[in-house]
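ARCHIVE CARD
SHELF: 3
SLOT: left
DATA:
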Amino acid sequence: MVEKPSVSIVDDDIWARIGIGEFVESLGYQASTFESGRDFLESHCVGNSACVIVDLQMPDMNGLELQRQLRVLGHCMPIIFITAFPSEAYRAQALNVGAIGFLPKPVDERLLIECLTRAISISRR
């Protein structure tokens, strides 16, 4: 049996976590959700995630800080940023350090599918 790719969703907004998690599972992926970057970093999912969908602006540790911390720890899984406050400066910063996507909230499902497909493909290599 082929194991479903695991996608981790990190967002301090419970409704975003639930909604994106359910959508990801409807696409046939396994979804794990986390309220904060620290929760994700302390989980078993860090080394098992094919992709991470992370909110850009969260208290304590924002999405860019989480991305940096993952790289420091040697994890280079694809990351998709989502944000309710999109700006070109943050978009450029995220993409310059290797993000697969930078999507405004509410997330366009078609764009998320495109980003997930690309991310899963990269993680399988």
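SLOT: right
DATA:
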Amino acid sequence: MIRYSTIESHEGQFMVEEEMPVYGTGNQAVDLSMTLALETIRFCERLEKDGKFVVSNQFLKCGTSVGANISEAQEAESRADFIHKMKIASKEIREVLYWATVCQHAEGYPVPEKIIEIATHLNRLLNKIIITSKSTNKRK
């Protein structure tokens, strides 16, 4: 999928073509969670090839549920419901980071560096979204 962005410079505006993933929604949290899920699936397939089924199963569940919760939050019934769903997604990210740390320190396990990077970034983003949503909620 191709996306066009408008760039402004001292010479005026011009359009730039950007390659977007097929799942590119324009919502950074949704897109990052999809990237996390896809990387988690790839990593877990690697774990399963190595016979590491228990860790793979746990990792797969939390790594894919992050996006499911963020997706649900997009259709939240209220601001409180949105915050609650985003908090659940944040907890799932912490579990992803836990299993990534287990793999990092367990002998004979691959290190999921890309997953750690994505999850850390996504966790920071969700925390900002939650804080902003809470403060906006208090002002009303």
